[in-house]
Amino acid sequence: MIAFEDHFQMADTGRRKALELALSRGGDFAEIYAEYRVYSFINMEEDIIKETAESISLGFGVRVISGEKTGYGYTNDLSFDSIRKAALTAASIADSEKTAFLPDFRRAPRSEDRYPLTRPAHQASLQDKINLVRRAYLSCQKSDAKIKKVKALFQDHVQYVFVANSEGWAAEDARPQVKLVCTAVAEKDKRKEFGFSGGGGRVGLEYFGQTFSPERIGREAAEEALLLLEAVEAPAGEMPVVLAPGHAGVLVHEAVGHLLEADFNPKKTSIFWDKLGQKVGSPLLTIYDDPTLPSFRGSYNIDDEGTPPEKTLLIDRGVVHSFLQDRLSARLMGRPLTGHARRQDYTCIPIPRMSNTYVDRGQDDPEDILKSVAKGIYAEKFEGGQVEDSGKFTFSISAGYLIEEGRLTAPIKQATLIGTNIDILQKIERVGADLSFGLQTGTCGKEGQEVPVTDGCPTIKISRMTVGGQS
């Protein structure tokens, strides 16, 4: 657990004054968000530590909601004159004579800490971090003579946030984040392939000794690149597809999760906007988003509106159960808050976002799922994809295998999965009991904002999908 440090030098009287200014033109709701962040970065390639960097950012944002409209102002100067200008900028969205009454602040009770750690990265020496990078780099490089290029990156930050609003709610959080990743390039007979691995989360440096060592990260990156040197072209056509546990959860994140973020609903741009309570998938399918998982990359003690987060059931046995809400979308839809308002930093407004999204475990044995497929594709990892509001999607498989007579055979490359999300959800035929999560390195982009996320799934069999490959 990291103790909260108040870097903002603003008493409750100053915060109250900022909120009064924000509501001076009659908005319905106002909020202030203060953030202090310390960030470090190390890059090793071409056998040298090529870059190290450290930065500190401090800023203050003010948001006003008036009806369906949002006004926002921010500053990196915490003098009250600059805060006043930011508050009046946000206030300009409203135009009424309504007078605001601000109650006294009620501090959010400290919830169960979701960042249990013993060696906070921001307190470690630069040399300790460089040693982790070197270990991953050398492990990858020495794996095989066919590994021709290696890149290892380390990033960490600690983020202190304080949120207060015109309803009298105030909350704070101190959030750690760490990531160590390695990329390998393997070459054989003028053919070049890439491999990737990494680990991290809201953890301390002890994670790389107890859970996921730098040597393992480097070795796994090399193994993936070497495996793809032997990959064959994927077949094309309609066939069964089995999603591997863990990494394949990104398909659910992209093809389903984004369209269950509630800000799409008032605009009616999501295929799910009118599907609440309706069956959209197999009764074997249950999907959650859970920001409360300890140490996960997408977890937090409070969201970026100060709301305590909740494990949220999105799809219950094939039926749309709920959406991920922020304060504005919940107000417009008449739904309860779920604690999923997130923002990249103090320069951004909060919007509904996923955190740790996953398909819940089923009851099937993963081996039995494979044995049920005579000929098909096993999708292990994905790289890139595109999803339309209509639910149509394409995803590229970066690592996978042919399934022949119930067994994994040749590795494949350059396969594309094509479909529509509701159609695919309805074709889920079996769900394994082996739920796991992908690498704790993921970042999700939306409306120009990036936030850390995790996704996962058990082994899942889809009865038929269109696979783009070699005819």
Give a description of the structure.
There is one protein chain. By secondary structure, this protein is an alpha+beta fold. It has two domains: 12-229, PmbA/TldD fold (2-Layer Sandwich), CATH 3.30.2290; 233-468, no CATH class. The protein has nine helices and 25 strands. Strands 1, 2, 3, 4, 5, 6 and 7 form a seven-stranded mixed β-sheet that branches. A six-stranded mixed β-sheet has the order 12-11-10-15-24-21. The model has no long low-confidence stretch (mean pLDDT 94).
Quickly list its features.
single chain, 471 residues, alpha+beta, PmbA/TldD fold, 2 domains, seven-stranded mixed beta sheet, 9 helices, 25 strands
| Helix percentage | 10-25%
Number of domains as seen in the coordinates = 2
Rg for CA atoms = 24 Å
Helix tally equals: 9
Name the overall outline. Answer: globular
**Could you tell me the strand content as a percent range?**
35-45%
* pLDDT averaged residue by residue: 94
Biggest beta sheet summary = 7 strands, mixed
Q: How many beta-strand runs? A: 25
Structural class computed from helices and strand pairing: alpha+beta
The residue ranges in which pLDDT falls below 50 over 5 or more consecutive positions are none
The CA-CA distance between the termini, in Å, is: 54 Å
Q: What does the oligomeric state look like here? A: single chain
